[in-house]
Amino acid sequence: MRWRAAAGLLVISLAGCGQAALEGQSNASAGTTVNAAARGAPTSITCVVAKLADGDSFTCADGRKVRLLLMDAPELHQTPWGLMAKRQLEGLAGPGTTLRLELDRNPTDRYGRTLAYAWVGPVMVNEWMVANGWAVVLAYENVRFLSQLQRAERAAQASRKGFWQAWAFRCRPVDYRAHRCGDAPAKGKRKSRRAQEATGNS
After folding, report:
1. DSSP letter, residue 183
2. Given CA atoms 125, 136, 201, 41 in this order, what sign does their dihedral have?
3. How far is Cα 33 from Cα 5, in angstroms, rounded to an integer?
4. Which residues lie closer than 8 Å to 180 by C-beta, 6 or more apart?
């Protein structure tokens, strides 16, 4: 099929892309948890990544589940895009990476996951994924860096980076979860909890 051929070309042409973009970057050093809410500054939490769920969520070594704010990566069932996005996140913030998590207005979602902006040294993971075309912007109440990520998305689209090169996010993850796309999983097929939940919070 035409999309399979495009996916194959994308995998070949962009192999190692995420790793190359990370040259010269180092993982953030471990630090202590800082609760700056009383001072009006963002709350910062240290997280050592234990495992990735997909391209926009992961679990810390202390058991904390994290959903990255203002970005939405393809679902794993959106093959092959979901797995490709997860691999890009892994190249930047894979298991063992120490992240600084910065909270916004609402610290958790209805699933109990921490909603955060994640930093590897000076690099904001959320922005990096969007800027390189592996995720799109998705905004709800937490919007501190919204303008910044929207600019990153426009630039990625204009430069045809990542998925914009071939797939072009024809079915955005939020639409896929709501079964608004033709390639949404057929009813009755085995789906992950996130794919079953027709919500933009996944």
Report:
1. T
2. positive
3. 46
4. 171
DSSP element (H, E) containing 176: helix 173-177
Could you tell me the residue ranges of all domains in the chain? Answer: 2-196
SS (H, E, C) 126-162: HHHHHHCCCCECCCCCCCCCHHHHHHHHHHHHHHCCH
> What is the C-alpha to C-alpha distance for residues 140 and 65, in angstroms, rounded to an integer?
19
10 Å Cβ neighbour count for 41?
Answer: 11
Residues 33-70 have pLDDT tens digits of: 333 333 355 689 999 999 999 999 999 999 999 999 99
pTM here is 0.74
Q: Classify strands 98-102 and 123-124 as parallel, antiparallel or unpaired.
A: unpaired
Please tell me the class of the 2-196 domain.
mainly beta
Nearest alpha-carbon partner for 66 in 39, 93, 28: 93
What does the alpha-carbon distance between residue 66 and residue 114 come to, in Å, rounded to a whole number?
5
**For the CA atoms of the chain, what is the radius of gyration?**
16
Per residue in 138-161, pLDDT (tens digit) is 999 899 999 999 999 999 999 999
| Residues with Cβ within 8 Å of residue 196, at least 6 apart in sequence | none
Better-scored residue on pLDDT, 129 or 181 = 129
How far is residue 49's CA from residue 92's CA, in Å, rounded to a whole number? 11
